[in-house]
Design brief:
228 residues; alpha/beta; 5-stranded parallel β-sheet; globular; binds adenosine-5'-diphosphate; binds cytidine-5'-diphosphate; binds magnesium ion
Length: 228
Amino acid sequence: MWRRATLFLRVLEPPIHINASLSQTFTTGFPFHFQEKDGICPKPLITFVLGGPGSGKGTQCGKIVETFGFKHLSAGDLLRREMVSDSEYGSMIMNTIGEGRIVPSEVTVKLILREMESSDNHKFLIDGFPRSQENRIAFEQIIGAEPHMVLFFDCPEEEMVKRVLSRNQGRIDDNINTIKNRLQVFESLNLPVIDYYAKKGKLYRINAVGTVDEIFEHVRPVFEACEF
Ligand SMILES: Nc1ncnc2c1ncn2[C@@H]1O[C@H](COP(=O)(O)OP(=O)(O)O)[C@@H](O)[C@H]1O
Ligand SMILES: Nc1ccn([C@@H]2O[C@H](COP(=O)(O)OP(=O)(O)O)[C@@H](O)[C@H]2O)c(=O)n1
Ligand SMILES: [Mg+2]
């Protein structure tokens, strides 16, 4: 089924054939340099994965990667990795995540851009981003691309809190006080982004209650049916 979807992409958005000698400098029309494969430089295919803290974004992304071969970029994981590196942003990221606020978009978008540029996959699953309209606009301006579709894992608050508190990954923000802030930030900053994509007809709302496998059975047809 995925093969058929890929064929569709080629019809709708023909890949750009490039001269091998130009491959170091050629860009796809997007502001970033995209890796060529077999003389073909396909356009990036971007899916944003949204949902509140603990709604199961990361878990479902793992299954989408296994089944549909996307490159998974978790904005939270990229920020946590940057936080423990020698980065000048390390302490700012730690304080911001610890308080459940949103890191300035420029920092997050640059981390995403770096991963996209170094990937030899052109299908990206961007998890936990955009968390705000500011995130969304920065992505459009810096990367110059829009998502083909947006998944929203819709989960009741009590279930999200329960999952986050039993996640046990040693995260500084998985505690009851920070969760309260994260839920507020989700409602005030992330829901408007979700509404924005709903109005554009790009949003797929998934009921995030059930077992991991049951939820994935709602996700699977979205990818099988999409015409890219
Ligand atoms: N459908 C589910 N039912 C119960 N627990 C789940 C489910 N999906 C994920 N989890 C667990 O809940 C926690 C949060 O999931 P995660 O994928 O990290 O969510 P998010 O990335 O949205 O914060 C993890 O410990 C994960 O194993
Ligand atoms: N686009 C993003 C994503 C995450 N973050 C920060 O990173 C934290 C953890 O994000 P995450 O996506 O790993 O969290 P979960 O929703 O997976 O629990 C958020 O609460 C924010 O503080 C951000 O500032 N901007
Ligand atoms: Mg996550």
